[in-house]
Amino acid sequence: MSYSIAEAARRSGLSIDTLRYYERIKLLEPPARDAAGRRAYSDTDLTWLEFLTKLRTTGMPIRRMREYASLREHGTASAGRRKAILAEQRGAVAARIAELQACMQVLDYKISNYEQIECAMADVATQEAETRGVPA
After folding, report:
1. Are 23 and 57 in contact (CB under 8 A)?
2. Sheet holding 2-3: strands in order across?
3. CA 73 – CA 82 distance, rounded (Å)
4. 56, burial (CB in 10 Å: exposed 0-12, middle 13-18, buried 19+)
5. CA 133: distance to chain centroid?
6. Are 73 and 48 in contact (CB under 8 A)?
7. What is the pLDDT of residues 82-114, one digit of tens each?
8. How far is residue 29's CA from residue 117's CA, in Å, rounded to a whole number?
9. TM segments (predicted)?
């Protein structure tokens, strides 16, 4: 299947400018061209773009993504280094997840605390209403 740059952008969730930028900085091999000379992205290109998007979502720097993309051109000979890059990034992601989980615990504690305060305030309001003879 072949996709125009607009369709590739839509399918990948990246902008047309980002696709051109990735091509310019050698993250993405220049796609084939159609008879009119327009970029024609393949399913393989879209799969690679999806992977690059995942790497960016993990916070991988462009510099490291470029290194990975360059190594990819060397095939299986570069598998060890590519694995090392991914393992290093996985470690960074795991650390970030742990940090976010700690933040989530703090948020949960604070929310629970405010719920207790609200319940206590509601109880006080009910008691005050009852002492004034106003039905709750």
Report:
1. no
2. 2-3, 39-42, 32-33
3. 11
4. middle
5. 57
6. no
7. 999 999 999 999 999 999 999 999 999 999 999
8. 58
9. none
Please give the Cα distance from 49 to 95 (Å, whole number). Answer: 25
Give me the CATH topology for the region 2-97: Multidrug-efflux Transporter Regulator; Chain: A; Domain 2 (1.10.1660)
Kind plus residue range of the DSSP H or E element containing 40: strand 39-42
Q: What are phi and psi of 50, to 5 degrees?
A: -60, -40
3-state secondary structure of 42: strand
Distance of CA 57 to the CA centre of its chain: 3
For residue 32, which of 18, 22, 42 has the smallest C-alpha distance? 42
The predicted-structure confidence for 111-134, as pLDDT tens digits, reads as follows 999 999 999 999 888 888 888 876
22 backbone dihedrals φ, ψ, rounded to 5°: -60, -35
Domain boundaries, the chain: 2-97
Q: In degrees, to the nearest 5, what angle opens at C-alpha 96 toward C-alphas 92 and 102?
A: 150
Six token digits for residue 79: 């598998």
Three-class secondary structure of residue 32 per DSSP: strand
